[in-house]
Amino acid sequence: MTAPTVLFDLDGVLVDSQDAEVRALLDFAGSVHARVPAEGFAELVAGRRMSESVGIIGQHTDTPLPDDAVEQVREIAERYLGTRLRATPGMAEALREITTHRYVVSNSPLDMIEDRLRRTGLAGFFDGPHFSAYELGTWKPDPGLYRRAVELLAVDPEAVVAVEDSEVGVRSAHDAGLRVCWYRPDHPEEARWSGRVRVFGDMSALPKLLG
């Protein structure tokens, strides 16, 4: 079988930044006296557009959110990351073994995609283009983002695998007709594909899954 084109999500897949964004959202929620439930909040916002996550906070407070709420959350997240931003454990090693075409498909702005790849030393693994929801005007979980990426690459959806870490991202890729490798480091690895989705818990397993 021909090796697939691989579409990687950014946060939580390529770079280990998801926890910082969740902490930033919770800090911001506290600053506006929003009573968001701490339990399950990370899963609720995982993979979502930042403005959508901020909107969820807005549902838990009677105080109107500031116009620059998204910018405030991003600034808090960057403070948490500081010099600690890193590639997801095992990611660089996996990318060295994956020799097929690789692209980034993310809800993040294009400049953030490029910055985080550069800061984590992963930029050299991707020739581009990167596919940003902000550039294409469609955000996960809508399948439109993946559909547009596949269309612009002029590849057969059957020959594409998406690598995601959130339910939002998995739903987007799956509904676009793609196979999905769902990275869940806290989840036991399954023995084989279940439908079009394969759950795996260690990045070292990814090259073999794609083979």
Q: What is the count of helical runs? A: 10
Strand order of the largest sheet: 3-2-1-4-5-6
CATH class categorisation of the largest domain = Alpha Beta
- Provide the succession of SSEs: EHHHHHEHEHHEHEEH
Count of distinct strands: 6
Which percent bin holds the helix content? Answer: 40-55%
Stretches where pLDDT is under 50 for at least 5 consecutive residues are none
Instruction: Give me the CATH superfamily of the largest domain.
Output: HAD superfamily/HAD-like
Structural class: alpha/beta
Query: How many separate structural domains?
Result: 2
Residue fraction in strands: 5-15%
Indicate the radius of gyration in whole angstroms.
Answer: 17 Å
Instruction: Output mean pLDDT.
Output: 90
Sum up the overall morphology in one term. Answer: globular
Instruction: Report the biggest beta sheet as strand number plus sense, adding barrel if it closes.
Output: 6 strands, parallel
Q: What name is given to the CATH topology of the largest domain?
A: Rossmann fold
What distance separates the N and C termini? 8 Å
Brief sketch in words of this structure:
With 211 residues, this protein is an alpha/beta fold.
